[in-house]
Amino acid sequence: MNGKGLILACELNEKRIKRLQDTVKLAGASNVKVMHQDFLTLDVNKSPLSQVKAILLDPSCSGSGTVHRRLDHLLPSFASQETGGVDKPRLEKLAKFQKKALQFALSFPAVERVVYSTCSVHQQENEDVVSSVLEFAKSNGFQLGYPLPQWQQRGLPIFDGAEKLLRVEPSQDMDGFFVALFERRLGSAVKADNTKISPPMLTQQKGELGSTSKKKGNKSKKKLKRKRLGICSENIY
Which helix (H) or strand (E) holds 94? Predict the structure, then answer.
C-alpha cells in the first residue's frame, strides 16, 4: 500500500496487543491503526468499517502447524497427538468460533476480498469451516478465489471447489498453514441486513481490487482512498 490508505489491526488479547503495537512501530507502518477490541463487536455499518474493502482474518486456532517451531514435539503430550490423540472438544470450540468470525467478516457491506487463514493442519479448522459458510458466502455475493495457482498443495477434496484452497503441511523448513480466499462478484454488495446496495465500479489495478471513478475532484480522491481501506483481525479466545 506504500503507506497510503488505512489498515485496522484488531486484537483482543491484552498481552499480544503490546507486541502488535511494537511490531507496527518497528515496521514504520504509519497507516496502521491498532484496535484493542473484539472483532465480533465491531459495528460494520459505521465509518470507516462500512468502507472496508479487504479483510485478512487470522482467528484463534490450534496452532498445530507450528508444533515444530514451538518445540511441542519435545513434550510428553505430543506423543499422544501423533497417534491420533487430538483435543476434540477444543477443536470443536475453535471451529465454532472460526465459523462465526468468518461469517462476520463476510458481512461487511463494502468488503470485496476476505482471506481466511490459520496455522492449523486440521481439516476441522480449515476445509470444514470454509465448507460450512459457503451458502452464507454465496448469499452475500461471494465465491471462492484461486490464490497462488502455481502452488502444488491444495485443499483436501471434501467438497467441489476445495482445490481452490491452499494448505501446507509442516516441515523442518516451513510451518503448516491454510488459506482460503473469498471474492465478491461485481454488483453483489450488500448491507449488514442483507439488502443489496449499489456498489462503486470495480477494477483490477496492480493486483488490488478497488473502486475507481472517472470524475475529477474531491469525490474521486475520496473513492480512491476508500479502496485502500482494509482490516486484519486475530482475536484470541
Answer: helix 88-105
